[in-house]
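FORM 7B: Structural annotation worksheet

SECTION A. Query
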Amino acid sequence: MQQRPSYIGPIGVCIIIVAVLLFVGATYNSLVTLGQAVDAQWGQVQNVYQRRADLIPNLVATVKGAANFEKSTYEDVAKARASVGQISPQVVQNAINNPQDFAKYAAAQDALGSALSRLLAVVENYPQLRATENFQTLQAQLEGTENRIAFERKKYNDAARAFNTKRDTFPTVMIAGLFGSRFNEKPYFQAQSGAQNAPTVNFSP
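SECTION B. Predicted structure
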């Protein structure tokens, strides 16, 4: 009597293959979703940094017009702002996938924040300048922007941490490796002196 062929083996192999493909697809989609969240938050970080850069020319003009500062005081701010502007948009956009570019961008922004802090500290010696409406408005806008920078940087770090945690867990880390640099780890902003906080300057008379 002829034995009927068994299809259990091939069917089982097909089920396993489908299950593996579904798992890989789900993992890929999860990494893409988390990566998009990092990209979106990186865009927010750039927005608040741009807001600060846009305020600086008015601040420098106000200070130069109302106080006899040493030129180096506001020239440092102008140079730091120019240094940030010299970083190409492509480098900035891809910085979250390149730790070296990310560090360069963060360092330039930190240098600008430090220069601003020094400028505002010098203003302490000029109560007549601090009393002007224009300076008070700029001061409030800058303080709000610095606080927003700290907030958006923290949110970026949270999004990057969520992505990196997912990416580095087993077996996701093996699947991420199949796609080359598509799912590289995301770098973090590091806490540095004066980089993430609004300048601690007392503007009271």
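SECTION C. Observations
The first helix runs from residue 8 to 66. Residues 194-205 have pLDDT under 50 and may be disordered.

SECTION D. Sign-off
Analyst initials: ____
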